Amino acid sequence: MRNSEFGRRNNAGAYAYVANTPLQVPENEYALRLGPRQQQLTAVRALHQRLWAYLAVVALAGIVIAFTTLSLPLISTLWIVLPAVVMLSIIRSLTKNARTHSRVQRIVSFYELGVARLRHQWQGRGISGKEFLPKNHVYASDLDLFGTGSLFELLCTARTGVGRAVLAEWLLNPAECNEAVERQIAVAELRDMIDLREDWASVGGNALDQVSSSAVQDWAEAPSVTFPFYVQALAIGLPICLIAMSIFAHMGLFGDNWLWVIAAPIVLEALLAAVFLKKTRLTAANLVLPSFELALIVPLLDRLEKENFQCSLLKSLHSRLTTS
Fold it and tell me: What is the pLDDT of residue 206?
């Protein structure tokens, strides 16, 4: 019995030793991945500066070429096309490099915040979630669930308002035992999938990094704003009618009355806009935040669809995503 106890202790010690090797310690792994990403970010910034310098040189050369071709009739003006093409190519490269910079910057921030959490330096650097704090809750205030330095700020790495609202709901309402166990199993599987979490951190933009509202969920659950069919027809037909009337007026078909003919569809458009102004403003307002958040959710879900999971909870979520 003592031998078996000694063996168990040795196995536990061996497991602890393996689990704490440099590549298995989260802080070491994050730092190992952070270094190359920081070097890549530095290289991207250096390339961006060079591209701006190239653009300035080409723009100056284009001005010189344009002045020369206009001053000397012997030189063809087609020479202006050359710097214009080069400038367009540089602008295209600048745009592409800017997207790369944003993506790498988000990855660097992901690892930096991860290291900060592991070193207990995360307070005030994340999302406080104070808007989720209910006024009368049994334990939310006592346990500092929300606010600066709160549990929510420590845990929350969600990129969308929907994700943050779900995390807040989980903290405020305890789950059943079986559900909590399933979540822990899913966390254990996701814990080692650093590439997947890096991809999640890299996609999309930063427009919603400080927005905590559940924009998409609120938009999906809100009652739909509908317009009568004749309004939709007029909204399409009146601009077409205005363009056609303008063309006919330019051709001289209306004579001296062309101004009144063109004014008619303009006045009708103004009346239509005034009557349905409240509805159109509501529709536009309801689409602003969801449009940004959907632009972020789509690549996240697309990345999730390509992953293969093992635990039942993640398999269920994956199945619901890919079949409906």
Answer: 52
Number of other residues whose CB lies within 10 A of the CB of residue 169 = 11
Taking residues 239-260, what's their average pLDDT?
84
DSSP-based helix, strand, coil % in the chain, nearest 5: 75, 0, 25
The answer to whether the CB of 168 falls within 8 A of the CB of 304 is: no
- In this structure, is the dihedral angle defined by the CA atoms of residues 304, 308, 312 and 315, taken in order, positive or negative? positive
CA nearest neighbour of 33 among 172, 201, 152, 147: 201
Q: Which two tokens stand for residue 184?
A: 């822990």
With beta carbons less than 8 A apart as the criterion, state whether 107 and 33 touch: no
- The tokens of 323 are what? 């079949």
Q: Cα 128 from chain centroid?
A: 19
User: C-alpha dihedral over 142, 144, 145, 146, to 10 degrees?
Assistant: 130
How many other CB atoms sit within 10 Å of the CB of residue 67? Answer: 10
Q: Stretch 167-194: mean pLDDT, rounded?
A: 91
CB–CB of 2/79 below 8 Å? no
